[in-house]
Amino acid sequence: MVTLRPACEADRAALYRICLETGDSGEDASGLYADPQLLGHIYAGPYLSFAPDFAFVLEDAAGVAGYVLGAPDTAAFEATLAREWWPALQEVYPLPQSPPEARTPDERLTWLIHHPRRTPEALLGAYPAHLHIDLLPRVQGGGRGRALMTTLLDALRAAGSPGVHLGVGERNTRAQGFYRHLGFEELYRSPGAVTFGLKL
């Protein structure tokens, strides 16, 4: 029995774990990072803190095994994180001093904490919302990913957002097929990543 429900603060550790275990273009990234919290700090934790109405999880008998996280207004969300999320993490994780080509995977994520990516304004006009979705293998299939996406997309529509975008690793062709099947269109490619959009 798999249950889809709103996420809550008690799910934070599970979300961080899932983020890590799917963090290598859908594969387990546990062996890539010395600090298992870093990916979650960037891609999961902020949503529980600042967009909890747009966070949903899948839970089975073994615990939380998947999530979808989003924000209806990406520009406002990024501004909030700049004020209220990144400064505390920047205190914990000093800015890497090594040149980009010499940075470890942990240092590359730490660099993002000090220089968070900002979404291009040209994208936000039509697709102001964004989302992340990750499922562990044990809950993949059976329409569960679609159910998660539908739940979040309905919440974004109800919030008045006209469109949503997401990024996916260029190597993660399975996820790309999933998004296309849901009606997302490829908007553009950048080194290592593909950006998709869906009008709501």
TrEMBL record:
<feature type="domain" description="N-acetyltransferase">
    <location>
        <begin position="72"/>
        <end position="200"/>
    </location>
</feature>
<protein>
    <submittedName>
        <fullName>GNAT family N-acetyltransferase</fullName>
        <ecNumber>2.3.1.-</ecNumber>
    </submittedName>
</protein>
<keyword id="KW-0808">Transferase</keyword>
<dbReference type="InterPro" id="IPR016181">
    <property type="entry name" value="Acyl_CoA_acyltransferase"/>
</dbReference>
<dbReference type="InterPro" id="IPR051822">
    <property type="entry name" value="Glycosyl_Hydrolase_84"/>
</dbReference>
<dbReference type="Pfam" id="PF00583">
    <property type="entry name" value="Acetyltransf_1"/>
</dbReference>
<dbReference type="InterPro" id="IPR000182">
    <property type="entry name" value="GNAT_dom"/>
</dbReference>
<keyword id="KW-0012">Acyltransferase</keyword>
<dbReference type="GO" id="GO:0016746">
    <property type="term" value="F:acyltransferase activity"/>
</dbReference>
